[in-house]
Amino acid sequence: MNQIITIGREFGSGGREFGRRLAEELGYEYYDKEIIAEIAKKTELSESYVQQIVERQPHRLFPITVGQSLAYVNKYQNDLIVKVFNAQCEILKDLAEKSNCVFVGRCADYILKDYKPLKIFIYSDLKSKIERCKERNNDNLTEDDIRKAIKRIDKERAKYYEFYTGHKWGDKENYDFCINTSNTDIKLLVSVIAKIFK
Amino acid sequence: MNQIITIGREFGSGGREFGRRLAEELGYEYYDKEIIAEIAKKTELSESYVQQIVERQPHRLFPITVGQSLAYVNKYQNDLIVKVFNAQCEILKDLAEKSNCVFVGRCADYILKDYKPLKIFIYSDLKSKIERCKERNNDNLTEDDIRKAIKRIDKERAKYYEFYTGHKWGDKENYDFCINTSNTDIKLLVSVIAKIFK
Fold it and tell me: Distance between CA atoms of B158 and B160, rounded to whole angstroms?
């Protein structure tokens, strides 16, 4: 069986960089946003719509329009959500069959549980998260904007994870290793953690 | 500065074995119950009484006796608690100055924060904890007895930690690495984790 590493992460904790660098260091495949594109292909929905479905709570997707039956909206909505999640499961399993790989997000720890993945969760204190976001801030956001974005995105990730897995996102019980990246250089951290796999 | 590793652990998670083996593997000093004996020497209290103070909530130490002043009891009790905790802090810092070392429990992560310890928390699911306790069960306890003991001891550890540090015991924010030992052989785990330090 291939070695599968799944990475859950708080926004701004450096989890994506950690996953990418770890895959690079180990010579594993790395999957993150590529999966959205694959789901879009498989379901014939637009990438931006798939992104919305996989990152937000279902009830936020469909505003109720006057004159439209709520039951109809719910049925259509549910079918799409199920379709997208099924496509996601199939894609993740296909990739896990192919080679050793690192998955970031996408409930991969839950979807791939039969592949006995090593489940990592990356987190850090708020100060470090704000610092990391500032470094890559292309939109001239204020510190307060960044703080709000971190809170909002993590809340959405938590709801998404809990909706599909029934487990609490970020709860250490659901992971094998939880790694705190506060005041830590991710490149250096990966060079140390990669030793575990060698 | 010496390399200090502190280990917090759930009862039955194999945290003590993890700490002992890690120290052995790295050639570091290992401190656990020895600290109680040192505190007893320093404070001239009995080891069993020190054990009680460092593992239980202060209010459980002194039953209120008829005819005895509550204020007097509280004053005496508080002085002892402060004395024991101060002794513990001094002993931990003296040991941290001497050599690289691994500390299990004793709020060492908090007391030694100026020494920038690597803070590890060891946990596992209830099933694995019960299994581990059964293996070393010398008292013919039933599974239900073991389950109750795990719950009680972890509750006491949590209260002790929170009383002295003001932080939530087992909350991943307080540690650098949290390691899940469910269904894991501790010896094998240590041989892998030790690579991080080499």
Answer: 6
Query: Per mean pLDDT, which range of A20-24, A51-55, A156-160, B147-151 is the poorest?
Result: A51-55
Q: Does residue A188 sit at the B interface (CB-CB below 8 Å)? A: no
CB nearest to A172's CB, from B178, B195, B198: B178
Per the CB < 8 Å rule, is A196 touching B198? no
Q: Are B80 and B56 in contact (CB under 8 A)?
A: no
pTM of the model: 0.89
Q: How many CB atoms lie within 10 A of CB B117?
A: 23
Residue A126 and residue A134 in contact, taking contact as beta carbons nearer than 8 Å: no
Would you call A76 an interface residue with chain B, using a CB distance cutoff of 8 Å?
A: no
* Amino acid making up residue B159: K
- Closest Cα of chain B to A91: distance in Å? 28
Q: Is A120 within 8 Å of A6 (Cβ atoms)?
A: yes
A vs B: CB pairs below 8 A: 43
Amino acid in the structure at residue B63: P
pLDDT of B179 strictly over 50 = yes
Amino acid identity of residue A154, one-letter, is D
B196 has a chain A CB within 8 A of its CB: yes
Contacts of residue B8, defined as CB under 8 A and 6 or more positions apart, other chains included, come to B15, B105, B109, B119, B120, B121, B122, B161, B169, B170, B174, B175
User: Is the minimum CB–CB distance between A195 and chain B shorter than 8 Å?
Assistant: yes
The answer to whether residue B118 neighbours chain A at the CB level (below 8 Å) is: no
Contact: A179, B177; criterion CB under 8 Å: yes
ipTM of the complex in this document: 0.87
- pLDDT above 70: residue B68: no
Q: Which two tokens stand for residue A156?
A: 């959405």
Alpha carbon distance B32, A121 (integer Å): 29
Tokens of B152: 């009680």
| Residues contacting residue B192 through CB under 8 Å, at least 6 positions apart | A196
